[in-house]
Specification:
By secondary structure, the protein is α+β, with helices and mostly antiparallel strands. The protein has two domains: 110 residues, no CATH class; 59 residues, no CATH class. It is built from eight helices and eight strands; from the N terminus they run βααααααααβββββββ. The strands form three sheets. Strands 1-2-5 form a three-stranded antiparallel beta sheet, with helices on one face. Strand 3 and strand 4 form a beta hairpin.
């Protein structure tokens, strides 16, 4: 099975799509809105957006990055007092960031995901299976019994200025279980794509309009 992004892709057997409809209707705080609410500076928000990072652990903070992000400047200054080294202070600057800026967005998403998975299992009466894609967006589900499954990203992905969610039924036949059969997902309706994403505009952050 193939996905264009590196995300958890839970699959569950289901005879109704009520939970998928509910997932598509839900409003989830965007990355930008979360960080604005958490008091992040424009410099930090831009640094995160530059490499599509959800947290400050997404990539190493280079020396050139520090001056443009006030939170990094303050964290490095605090680190120099601890480590007596500007280089170590930069490499370990995350320990001097607030928890809300360090891991808050990740925890927010994990809380949403755990609640959604619990609801999905409760609604369907079936276990949710999940798998992480590789860097190319490829993932494999194994040991599936014949039947109809619902393939869902559950947690929307941010692509450009859109929230993107996949919710599609997949029929697994008895004679197909022993063979690799690609199932292509995309946010574009193209040839061979079996599941096209549902797109919703990202919410406008209140603080961004002031």
């Amino acid at each position: 099975m193939k996905s264009p992004i590196n995300r958890n892709m839970p699959v569950r057997k289901n005879h109704v799509l009520a939970i998928c409809d509910e997932i598509e209707r839900r409003s989830l705080v965007s990355r930008e809105c979360y960080y604005r609410t958490a008091g992040a500076s424009e410099g930090l928000i831009e640094w995160l957006a530059e490499s599509d990072c959800e947290t400050v652990y997404c990539r190493e903070v280079e020396a050139d990055d520090v001056a443009s992000v006030p939170e990094f400047v303050a964290a490095v200054a605090a680190g120099e007092k601890q480590f007596d080294s500007a280089e170590l202070a930069r490499k370990w600057l995350t320990v001097n960031l607030s928890e809300s800026l360090r891991t808050g967005f990740y925890e927010n998403r994990q809380t949403y995901l755990r609640a959604s998975l619990k609801e999905a299992e409760g609604t369907s009466g079936a276990k949710v299976f999940s798998v992480m894609t590789d860097r190319n967006g490829t993932a494999y589900f194994t040991d599936l019994q014949p039947g109809v499954y619902t393939l869902s990203s559950i947690l929307p992905s941010e692509i450009g200025n859109m929230n993107v969610t996949w919710n599609c039924e997949v029929a697994v036949k008895a004679d197909e279980r022993g063979f690799e059969k690609p199932y292509l997902l995309s946010n574009r309706n193209e040839k061979n794509v079996k599941c096209v994403a549902i797109e919703k505009p990202l919410p406008v952050c209140e603080s961004a309009t002031k």
